[in-house]
Amino acid sequence: MTAMPRVLSDFLAEGDDLEDLLAGLAPEHWRLPTPAPGWTVAHQVAHLASVFRMAALSAGDPERFAAMAAGLSDDFEANVAAALAGYLGDPPDRLLRRWREERIAAAKALGSGPLDRIVPWLVRPMPASFLGAAGVMELFAHGQDVADAVGVRREYTDRIEHLVGFAVRNRDFGFEVRGLAAPKDPFRFELTAPSGAQWAYGPADAPQRVTGSAVDFCLLTTRRRHRDDLDVRAEGRDADRWLDVAQAYRGPSGEGRRPGQFRMAEAD
């Protein structure tokens, strides 16, 4: 039997960790508000289920994915709301089960062929491996919202390396969605993993540098914490400007988080 590619096994493991948290929640906890305005815990899980359903279609049935994508409007928020609507009517146990089925189907479809093959996606096609890394990003970001809502401190692992690499590759997204010119020069990223390993990307002699905690880098690039509350540092004018706009995803940046919003809770 061929071993599952690491990005997909890590994607499934991240989902299992979040499911362990969700499975222990009482039904009323699913109605708790999360830091994302207007979204409860149930909204977060419904969003993940809808995204993973699209990923399974993308990798497993590109023609159906194309037909689905063609039916989307130019209104991003309306598209998100429509995708959530198919899940939000479910009670927590059924929503949890459906989400599990969607993420397993996504991993199976992404692993059904070479990971370097190009699969369709909402903005532009990408390698299947990139879509797997994007799945890790989704689990990290929306899992953080769930953890914040229920007051649980997460345990991070080196599986976030997929998100770190994805955010580095997509360095310019934050500039692009704001209509800003992206820096022309490459950055050097030097980050410390949860295990203590050192991860480095970009030219070693680049004057524009971003250093610090890999976990905090992920919190920054998923906009789940404000830069002022993170161990992520910049050297160089462009790198410092990047810390204000960094995001690993191409869609609207959203409200982000306020300075100090979680400082007291995380100090407990």
- Strand content bin: 5-15%
Average pLDDT for all residues = 94
Q: What is the 3D form?
A: globular
Output the CATH homologous superfamily of the largest domain.
Answer: dinb family like domain
The whole-angstrom Rg is 18 Å
Question: What attributes characterize this protein structure?
Answer:
Nonspecific Lipid-transfer Protein, Chain A; single chain; Four Helix Bundle (Hemerythrin (Met), subunit A); 268 residues; alpha+beta; 2 domains
Topology (SSEs and partners):
Blueprint: H1 6-23, H2 41-60, H3 62-70, H4 76-88, H5 92-110, E1 118-119, E2 126-127, H6 128-150, H7 161-169, H8 173-177, E3 187-192, E4 198-201, E5 208-213, H9 214-221, E6 232-235, H10 237-245, H11 263-267
Parallel strand pairs: 3-5
Antiparallel strand pairs: 1-2, 3-4, 5-6
Helix pairs in contact: 1-5, 1-6, 2-3, 2-4, 2-5, 2-6, 6-7, 7-9
Describe this structure in words.
- This protein is α+β, with helices and mostly antiparallel strands.
- The chain folds into 2 domains: about 150 residues, Up-down Bundle (Four Helix Bundle (Hemerythrin (Met), subunit A)); about 110 residues, Nonspecific Lipid-transfer Protein, Chain A.
- The chain contains 11 helices and 6 strands.
- It has a 4-stranded mixed β-sheet, covered by helices on one side.
- The radius of gyration is 18 Å and the shape is globular.
- It starts with 5 loop residues before the first helix and ends with a helix.
